[in-house]
Amino acid sequence: MCLCVCVCQTQRDSDGDPVPVVMRDTIIFLSEQGLEIEGVFRRSANVTLVKEVQLKYNSGQAVNFRDMEDVHLAAVILKIFLRELPEPLLTYQLYNDIVNLASVSSDSQVTVMKTLVESLPEENYASPRYLITFLGQVSANSEVNKMTNSNLAVVFGPNLLWWRGNAIGPINNFTRTLLDQHHLVFA
Known about the structure:
By secondary structure, this protein is mostly helical. It has two domains: 1-86, Phosphatidylinositol 3-kinase, Chain A (Orthogonal Bundle), CATH 1.10.555; 87-186, Phosphatidylinositol 3-kinase, Chain A (Orthogonal Bundle). 61% of the residues lie in helices and 0% in strands. It contains twelve helices and no strands. Helix 2 runs parallel beside helix 8. The longest helix is centred in the C-terminal third of the chain and has 19 residues, at 122-140. The chain starts with a helix and ends with a helix.
């Protein structure tokens, strides 16, 4: 059951916010309830509830995570949403540049990353900016939740960019650097 097609392309508030509803709903709830939950992105959720939430989003119904009181459900829905997009948020077009970022001098990496993310289409720029800013809040609480930038990169790297090959290490390194430097990349 795909969570992405309906939500990513069509469900936007009338204010024209380019961040998909699923991302906003999950991140708002997690910002309020999940920042101090240990391993917030490392635990699974009830499979039946996950399917129910997916069905609601796919049929255009509102989802209120506060009513469900399950931080892990919101975290799982966010990861599934990112993983099931038809194309990753960081796009196939940037794949080679992202995988090869390690070959760029460390002095230039932030500038290159900023150029790469600014080349994304509006939705693809706004969504990672929103997500990474939130993940910065998560890592700021890492003493409690154990979700450091390295741990978050392992969880979210494969959900932000994928393709053929075995490039998970470079993708996770890019994601960790993006988390470390988000205040400069998205400035």
